[in-house]
Amino acid sequence: MTLDLFAGPGGWSHALNVLGVRDVGLEWDEWACKTRAAAGQLTPRTDVALYPVWPFLGRTVGLIASPPCQAWSMAGRRLGLVDQPLVHQAVSDLAQGRDTRENLLAACRDERSLLAAEPMRYLHALNTVGEPEWVALEEVPDVLPLWRQYAATLRRWGFSVWTGILNAADYGVPQTRRRAILLASRVRTAEPPTPTHAQVAEPESLFGPGRARWVSMAEALGWGATDRPVPTVCAGGGPGGGPEPFPSGSRKTLSDARTRGTWTPRSDTNAVPASQRSGKTARHDTLDNRPPGDAAPALAPDALHWAWSLRSNNQANATVRPLWEPAGTLFFGHRANECTWVADTTSMEGEQQPVPDPIRITAREAGILQSFPADYPWQGNKGQQFSQIGNAVPPRLAAHLLAPHLNKPVNPEDFALAA
Length: 419
Fold this sequence. Notes:
Blueprint: E1 2-5, H1 11-18, E2 23-26, H2 30-38, E3 62-65, H3 79-95, H4 101-107, H5 118-127, E4 134-139, H6 144-156, E5 160-167, E6 178-185, E7 197-198, E8 212-213, H7 217-221, E9 307-311, E10 320-322, E11 340-344, E12 359-360, H8 363-369, H9 382-391, H10 395-406
Parallel strand pairs: 1-2, 1-3, 3-4, 7-8
Antiparallel strand pairs: 4-6, 5-6, 9-10, 9-11, 11-12
Helix pairs in contact: 1-10, 3-4, 3-6
């Protein structure tokens, strides 16, 4: 079997299912377990820190773990950094078969910090029977030193190991989510998967096809149509653009029509970012460094009413990205409903219109931006759904990490986003 610790709502599991493999996921959160059940995933609801390892001995081919990141994440108090020496000590002790977790836990500032040491408890026990064949660990970037400690132990046990930081956008996820990754194998050289996407599209060369451009939020969500490539609100147009779905002048919200339209890339050279028109400076953190002639789609000035951007939270330093870019890292949890679509007033060309209010992102939209299917069966109320989505591993990234271990190809069509 493939064992998935801290399985969450099924980011790794969905990737495995697409690749034709089933896993067993251990998870404590009630609503994540219900989401997994609705998605047809096998999940004993349990505390990973208390569950015994012996049921998996002699049966485990692969081990996956994404320990809870709240103690380390920039979205929280980051007490995991304070507790880091204690976590390193726990990993060192568990790697030698000594369980000192109780004493170390009493000294932790955040009790969740020590969960990052739990994979080593399972790995030590499994190693006594020559298992698993491969390992994949994922966490926020600040956990990379801990993964390097894991790597040193795994190498002593005969594994080939790679650790590093990967950007989910480089693998077709419409989000620039950076994560610390550990990949290990007893039977092959561990190395990161070859990126399939880049910030700027790459041309074909003698060495093969170039990488595609990062997937934008508009493309992933299916927003954009024939003659109105930018969402409008005041005149009634929805985020999909195209013919107005409401009578002209009616005051509708973005959510009233956010599912309309299909993505139609535009390559006309007249389409330029708002920050480059009339000398205006955009308020969002633009990543645009495209060469002339590779202009961003969906920004034709003659059709522009409002350019929409996604704000990742309500903090002053929140990442704000326009629709024609990938989202920034989505943070939820206690700020579940504060990830919002905001109108970019710098896109106006002297027009006087009421500025639309920010509009909260939906769980469906957030899931798509994590590369889950549009119809993924999220369970619970809005806050519970957003919490699951924000903590999940993007399935498309997970597939690229796991495919080499399973000798399976990744078919991008299997991870289509907007319905």
